[in-house]
Specification:
By secondary structure, the protein is of the alpha+beta class. It contains 2 helices and 5 strands; from the N terminus they run αβββαββ. It has a 5-stranded antiparallel beta sheet, covered by helices on one side. 23% of the residues are buried. Bound molecules: guanosine-5'-monophosphate (5GP) and zinc ion.
């Protein structure tokens, strides 16, 4: 599979990994948009949110709960943080392996642009 995030999960491409387990990997975004900018991905290749099926419900729950845990570890949980999942080009998805952005450590704007 010629996928950047599959290769990061397999450690074929280096990344600053901050968490890994059987199903998930979390690593620092290479181009951080906030003091905390971590990407959480499933090891399983799923290209985009549009491809999610009922069998992925547990996995998606784990992705969000890992984001919550990392937010606490980085001490941004009380001030606040944002999680973002972009789907397809108009939303800004550039890597087609689903990922959750955990952003925090600064004030966020709304609407997000
Ligand atoms: P998207 O635009 O698809 O929602 O998010 C993709 C994210 O992956 C971007 O924030 C981008 O900075 C990050 N990214 C792209 N290539 C790499 C890489 O090789 N390593 C890491 N750590 N992050 C990457
Ligand atoms: Zn992939």
């Amino acid at each position: 599979m010629d996928c950047l995030f599959c290769k990061i999960a397999a450690k074929e491409i280096p990344a600053k990994i901050v968490h890994e387990d059987e199903e998930l990997v979390a690593f620092e975004d290479i181009s951080p948009q906030a003091p905390v900018h971590i990407l959480v991905i499933p090891r399983q290749h799923i290209s985009r949110l549009n491809d999610l099926q009922p069998e992925h419900d547990e996995l998606v729950g784990k992705i969000i709960r890992l984001a919550k845990k990392l937010a606490k570890e980085r001490d941004i949980d009380q001030a606040g943080y944002r999680v973002v999942m972009n789907c397809n080009e108009q939303a800004g998805q550039s890597v087609f392996h689903i990922h959750l952005h955990l952003l925090g450590g600064r004030a966020m704007q709304w609407p997000p642009g």
